[in-house]
TrEMBL record:
Pathway membership, UniProt: Protein modification; protein ubiquitination
Protein name: G2/M-phase specific E3 ubiquitin protein ligase
InterPro entries, per database record: EPHD, HECT_dom, Hect_E3_ubiquitin_ligase, PHD-type_Zinc_Finger, PHD_PHF7/G2E3-like, PHF7/G2E3_ePHD, Znf_FYVE_PHD, Znf_PHD
Residue positions of the active site: C731 (glycyl thioester intermediate)
Location of the HECT domain: 611-764
Pfam families xref list: HECT, PHD_G2E3, zf-HC5HC2H
Molecular function terms from GO: ubiquitin-protein transferase activity; zinc ion binding
Amino acid sequence: MSPVAADPAPQEAEPSAPSGLQAEVDEFESRGPLDGAARGRLCGSAKEGKSDTTVLELVPSAPCKMNENKPGASQNLACVFCRKNDDCPNKYGEKKTNEKWNLTVHYYCLLMSSGIWQRGKEEEGVYGFLIEDIRKEVNRASKLKCCICKKTGASIGCVTPRCKRSYHFPCGLQRECIFQFTGNFASFCWKHRPVQIITSNNYRDSLPCTICLEYLEPVPTYSILRSPCCKNAWFHRDCLQVQAINAGVFFFRCTICNNSDIFQKEMLRMGIHIPEKDASWELEENAYQELLQHYEHCDVRRCRCKEGRDYNAPDSKWEIKRCQCCGSSGTHLACSSLRSWEQNWECLECRGILYNSEDFQKAKKHTLPNTNSVGITDCLLEESSPKLPRQSPGAQHKDLLRQGNKFRKEVSTIMVELGFQIKKKTKRLWINKANVWNSALDGFRNQNFNPSYTIEVAYVDENDNFGREHPGSKQEFLSLLMQHLENSPMFEGSLSKNLSLNSQVLKENLYYEAGKILAISLVHGGPSPGFFSKTLYNCLVYGPENTQPILDDVSDFDVAQIIIRVKTATNVADLNSIVNECYNYLEHIGCLRLITSLSDKYMLAKDILVYHVIKRVQAPFESFKQGLKTLGVLEKIQTYPEAFYSIFCHKPENLTAKILSDLFTVRTLSDVQALGFWNSYLQAVEDGKSAVTMEDILIFATGCSSIPPAGFKPTPSIECLHMDFPVGNKCNNCLALPITNTYQEFQENMDFAIRNTLRLEKEGSSHYIGH
């Protein structure tokens, strides 16, 4: 039974009911108590001089039958309350038509009407509301004018005492009224609706809606709601409503902490309708059918079965054995040299997790895995969101093994989380290879550029009179940008760099652009920066006030000499002599101090150091920091400083033959001899028996000299083709290997093609990398 919602106040309230209407008032009161406003509105209907029967005549025309889904029968019929024929379940609730009484209603219009009770069973009338009650409610509402559209039929009113506003349900939505689908089904007008109160708003920047990931202003309004249990979780009202309808009361919960009780109570208060039904994904027929199927596929690198990887012959050497840890990988017994089915077998991934624990603990120094090998559950602390694809129990178990401590995240996992913001909508950047930095700036500063759009790169040549463009590799483009940043005047130092003070760069707001480009590069699959000093990184993570620079951070030789002389002074006289000699400089930087003892040299050296490394570049630092907030990168760095330290402050680990062999997957059926030559070639390159390096091979195939923190997308692959020389397709990260008769010919052709291709590319770009 749904209790009656509080009634709207009448437009003109009467002190008592005329005798002709007293019977109707008595009948309403027999169903439940009416407050003064409701009684006044009922009595006020007599003022129009119309009886119930003259307003709405409902005549039976057919046997009682509910039509719910026939488009021709219900979609063109108007709701008797709001008089709209819109069929939008998310906004107005399900639209139903009773053919016997020729009656059509929106569920929410019916549910929120003030003067009606659910007196019947669920199958009676419309949702348990009897036809005679609906008729009387329609007649009552016909005497009330909507304060929004100025038409009659306003069956809903604000429950606030002395508020006389009445309105239709769609009009109330348009005017941002709040309807509470719980308790007494109260309605509040735009003046008296409940609001979320935040004591202090420390949010200066936009934050993503945790459902759609679109950015929003974190200020509570009608359209923007905040989670009551997670203070950093914000939602669009429309996103919440769609989520609630799909999840139902049993699965609707906070997307961050999975709290349901506190979360649902607050959302109901703020007008979110949570239907009492099972989740939509639970109602799908055979939704979990795949969980009942055994995995039958051989996943080893070289399957020996002539019948194919999917062939499974029980009680033979071609029987497929599943991984005992995850169950989501398999092998033929013969392909892994297993003597019997009872013999234990683990796939390579689980074996690395279980048995190479020492290597696993040093994951920070290892090459980061490809994003394709990172499971969705790595990114969540609790139950997966219903919007994410389901995983089999075996895959989930493998993810948990990989994750280890759930409070310790690897960079690859964090990058996957950040990558969720990238949308399918693409934005093309036209890049002039003769001036990568400036053409990239033009693209990123374009008012139509959105950092969350998928980036496409097209290379253009300003000297080409025909204006032709060529598809480019996004990761190669981002690598060139990182090279420019590392060698730009925005940073100073040799290997470990700090921000410099460059007035022209500051004037052009390039420090902000540098931070923004670095953030975009990381999320979109760019390489590790690897050139930050520990001091600069700590300033970003912990703040300049909590960071102590060291002498190595000073790139200015003269300043470094002053600090060294101060630190090595052996007596007060020598120290005063240095202060007098550098008097103007110390006065200018605000470090001039009275020397009374030799121990004052430590404070003086510290003051000079802090000024030169931190205070002097305060404006560039703040600008760079604001740019780094793009796509939430800075927030992730501050949340997981240890995970990001290696990619910001250390160059990636040197590539090995094993790393490259594991990185490249074999595409389709390939020549076995050529693949053998490929593995031998990688080993020869690692042993220094080739003119090229591991990095040269990766650049030739992908445009990157190291594996990006976010991994490669698409996954690097190799294929064997009948040709003389290898071909690298950087757009698809594909390396085509030549099929040759001998290994010597294979190595010579590989060396020649890779070495000369990279030499030509360097000659073409050497004049702009340092600009």
